[in-house]
Amino acid sequence: MISRLATSYAPICLALSIPAVATPATAWAQKAEQSPLELRADDTAALIQGTKEPENIFAPIMLAAVPPAQFKAISEQLIAQHGALQGVESVTPLDATSGTAVLRFAKALVTVTLSLEQAEPNLINGLRITNVETLNDSMEKIKADLDALPGEVGVLFSKLDESSFPALARNAGTQYAIGSTFKLYILSALARSIEAGERKWSDVVELDRQSFPSGRMQNWPKGAPVTLQTLATMMITISDNTATDMLLYEVGRDAVEAELIASGHSDPDRTLPFLSTLQMFALKGSPGNLAKYVAADETTQRMILADFEDDVGGDPDKVTPPRFTSPTAIDTVEWFASGQDLQKLLRRIVDLSDPTARNIMGISPALPGPVTEKWAYVGYKGGSEPGVLNLTWLLQDKVGGWHVLSLSWNNTEANVDNAALDGLAQRILAFSD
Predict the structure, then answer these.
(1) Measured between alpha carbons, how far is 159 from 405 in angstroms, rounded to an integer?
(2) What CATH number corresponds to the domain at position 220?
(3) What is the pTM of this model?
(4) Which N-terminal stretch is annotated as signal sequence (predicted)?
């Protein structure tokens, strides 16, 4: 299971302006009138088009973060999704060396933020997409693009009230592997335990187990004291697998499974027994153990997991992780839910009198500023591994109404495209007015 960290698109997305043909003297006059920011906006466009090289435009810090080969792949993806680059629509400075540029593609306006080094030649040291506005879009076009994705796709965009007619529903009752979005069930179980007075967010526990990344806490010293709120925050905001397994065992597997059932999950047998992240890694890293586990009934599976706990506990050094280069048992060994199941779970989180769980979900909204500004609250959790992607948002409108947007994409044959589903999510939200 590989976390999808918050992005509004691929890490960097850019657009291209094709300058008019000019004599050398005219071209020099045009450049002389442009600010450094405007010049670098044009250079960014040329870079996407492939007429300039990153080494001549990017500062070393940018080249280290986004190597030329990666930038080329991102540029090709942008053009494939949004059509030919037609020009720089506008440049808006924030100061002398930073601002935004709107880049026009055939099918979309792409807004990017640019920051430049102070010293000449003002190389680009920061570049990020902040918004994509699809031109002449419609819900029918969105549905067609969803249906064109290879594999299986489910979408639910609706008010949180289950009696409301959804704005968009595509296979909303179908079970999908959801990757790290399963961590919302642990968050909800923890929050309900705290609401019942059994625990406190401030309770301190010792870090006594670890997992593989995503995350950082696998590198923390064993025995380090951490609060339950810290663990929950790490679990949701950076999808920390060590924090997740800590909470699964602190809250109790039985309590988390009870929460999954209490939430109204439509097919809990697909997910039970509720795996820890380390157990999932161990199973998928051992073809023999994986086959044995998949063939077993639930009682036998629980015995297998009990033996694992006795032999391995929370020690990843005793586990051979999977390579995760292609989809691996995503239809059998995973955490599963439908869009409607996640809608019900989010309803339970909203109904909590203590807002801490919602506050944690709101730390990393995974949407660009122009989208989040339309809402009073945006909370997010997503998850991915090869062949699996889920994006789930809890949203509150400006008059207090609660909404859910959940998209799942599974493909047992090939990896899935995070940027493509991100883009579709933003297009759906554009129709939320």
Answers:
(1) 9
(2) 3.40.710.10
(3) 0.83
(4) 1-22
